[in-house]
C-alpha cells in the first residue's frame, strides 16, 4: 500500500462528552485528513494527559501509539503470563536491553501492532494506563509502537485506534468501564467534524433513516497473524448482489459468500480509501455503470489511475447531495433491504474537468471479494450493535439535508 508524507497541523480540540450515567454515550470527534483521506480522532493518555492523534481502524484489534516520547507516572507494562495478557491474546514475552521506559521493559506481554499502510507487524509489548475522556478510564490496555514504524499515517498521527470485535478494542474496554450497552457508531465527515460514539444508540432523528442487516462472522481470521481456528474480528455483512441503476449485475453468487477458508464475502474497512471489488465483479460493474451513465448523457473520458471509469465533469449535473449519476445498491438479506450509494459517495473529482467512479479493482484473487472503503462511508451513519450482532446504516445523509458534521 502506498505511503504518504504530508504536513498537517492537528489543531482539533478534544470534543469528548462525559459518560455521567449509564445511558450517556462517550463521543470522540472525527476529522478527515485531506491529504491522505484518513479519518482520525484525538485521545488523552497517562498522568500528563498526553494528546495523541490516532487513525481510526475499524478492523484493528486494539489501540496502539508511539511510546518513544511518552512519559507517564501511571504507565504499567502487562506481565507476560498474566491474566490480562491472556485477555489481550499476548504472544510470548518481550524484553528490552535499554534503560526502562514506556515501550521498553522486560518480561512484558508480547503485542503485534500492525501498520496497514506499511503492511508491517512489529514486535512490541502491551501496557496499561489511564485514558481520559473527561471521566477517567483507568487501566486501559494498549500497545506501544516504535516511532520508526509510523510511516503512512497522516502527519501528526502517532497511532491507530482499533475498533474490531476483540476484548481489548477501544469500544469494548470503554463499555466495560462505564457499564454501557455494547454499541458504537461512526459518522465520517466529508468536511467539518464527525463523531465516534460509544454506548447508547442513535436518536430518533437518525433512527428513522436507518436500515438493519446482520453482522456475520468470517470463520477464519483476516488479521496478518492469528492462531488456527480463530475467526475474523473484522465486520462482514452479507451482500447478496450489486445493482447499478436498478439492474442486477451478472456475477457468480460464490464471490459474495465466504468459503470454508475464509475467502470471499464483504467487509467494511476504514483504512481502504475506496471500495475494492474482485476483478470478476469489478469488470461487469464498471461496464454497467458506464452504460447507465451514457444513457444519462454523461460523457466518458480516458481513465485516471487507479480508476477505470472516468467522465467529463461538465456532463454531470449536481444537486446539494452530490453528482447525479446512476445509483449503486448493495443488496442485503431481507425484503427491500439495500445500501444505496449515491453520487457523493460513488464519484471522485480528480480536477475540474474529470470525475471518476471511485471504486477500484481488487485483483483476481483477493482474500475478500468486496471491501467497502472509507469514501463510500462519508456522511453515512453506521451503528454497530454488538449485543444483537447487527449493523444499522443510512445511505447518504446529504439526501436528507443532513451530514455527519451537522448531527
From TrEMBL:
Gene3D superfamilies: Acid Proteases. Keywords: Signal. Pfam families: TAXi_C, TAXi_N. Residues 39-394 form the Peptidase A1 domain. Residues 1-22 form the signal peptide. Belongs to the peptidase A1 family. PANTHER family: ASPARTYL PROTEASE-RELATED (PTHR47965), BASIC 7S GLOBULIN-LIKE (PTHR47965:SF68). This is Peptidase A1 domain-containing protein. It comes from Rehmannia glutinosa.
Amino acid at each position: 500500500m502506498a505511503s504518504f508524507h504530508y504536513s498537517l497541523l492537528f489543531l482539533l480540540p478534544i470534543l469528548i462528552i462525559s459518560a455521567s450515567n449509564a445511558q450517556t454515550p462517550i463521543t470522540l470527534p472525527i476529522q478527515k485528513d485531506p491529504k491522505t483521506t484518513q479519518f482520525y480522532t484525538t485521545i488523552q493518555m497517562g498522568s500528563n494527559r498526553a494528546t495523541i492523534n490516532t487513525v481510526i481502524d475499524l478492523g484493528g484489534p486494539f489501540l496502539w501509539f508511539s511510546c518513544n516520547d511518552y512519559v507517564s507516572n501511571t504507565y504499567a507494562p502487562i506481565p507476560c503470563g498474566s491474566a490480562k495478557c491472556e485477555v489481550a491474546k499476548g504472544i510470548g514475552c518481550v524484553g528490552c536491553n535499554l534503560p526502562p521506559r514506556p515501550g521498553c521493559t522486560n518480561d512484558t506481554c508480547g503485542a503485534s501492532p500492525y501498520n496497514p499502510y506499511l503492511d508491517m507487524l512489529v514486535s512490541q509489548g502491551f501496557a496499561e494506563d489511564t485514558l481520559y475522556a473527561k471521566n477517567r478510564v483507568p487501566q486501559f490496555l494498549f500497545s506501544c509502537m516504535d516511532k520508526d514504524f509510523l510511516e503512512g499515517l497522516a502527519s501528526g498521527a502517532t497511532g491507530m485506534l482499533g475498533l474490531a470485535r476483540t476484548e481489548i478494542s477501544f469500544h469494548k474496554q470503554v463499555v466495560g468501564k462505564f457499564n454501557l450497552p455494547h454499541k458504537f457508531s461512526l459518522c465520517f465527515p466529508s468536511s467539518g467534524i464527525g463523531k465516534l460514539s460509544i454506548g447508547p444508540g442513535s436518536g430518533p432523528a437518525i433512527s428513522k433513516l436507518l436500515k438493519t442487516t446482520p453482522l456475520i462472522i468470517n470463520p477464519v481470521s483476516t488479521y496478518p497473524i492469528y492462531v488456527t481456528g480463530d475467526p475474523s474480528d473484522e465486520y462482514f455483512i452479507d451482500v447478496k448482489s450489486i445493482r447499478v441503476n436498478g439492474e442486477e449485475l451478472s456475477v457468480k453468487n460464490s464471490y459474495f459468500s465466504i468459503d470454508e477458508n475464509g475467502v470471499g464475502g464483504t467487509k467494511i474497512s476504514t483504512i481502504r480509501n475506496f471500495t475494492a471489488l474482485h476483478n470478476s465483479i469489478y469488470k461487469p460493474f464498471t461496464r454497467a455503470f458506464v452504460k447507465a451513465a451514457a444513457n444519462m448523457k454523461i460523457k466518458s473520458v480516458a481513465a485516471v489511475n487507479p480508476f477505470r471509469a472516468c467522465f467529463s465533469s461538465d456532463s454531470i449535473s449536481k444537486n446539494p447531495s452530490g453528482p447525479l449519476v446512476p445509483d449503486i445498491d448493495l443488496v442485503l438479506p431481507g425484503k427491500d433491504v439495500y445500501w444505496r450509494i449515491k453520487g457523493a459517495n460513488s464519484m471522485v473529482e480528480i480536477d475540474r474537468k474529470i470525475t471518476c467512479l471511485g471504486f477500484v479493482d481488487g485483483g483476481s484473487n483477493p482474500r475478500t471479494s468486496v471491501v467497502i472503503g472509507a469514501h463510500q462511508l462519508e456522511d453515512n451513519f453506521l451503528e454497530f450493535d454488538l449485543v444483537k450482532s447487527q449493523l444499522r446504516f443510512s445511505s447518504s445523509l446529504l439526501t436528507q439535508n443532513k451530514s455527519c458534521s451537522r448531527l
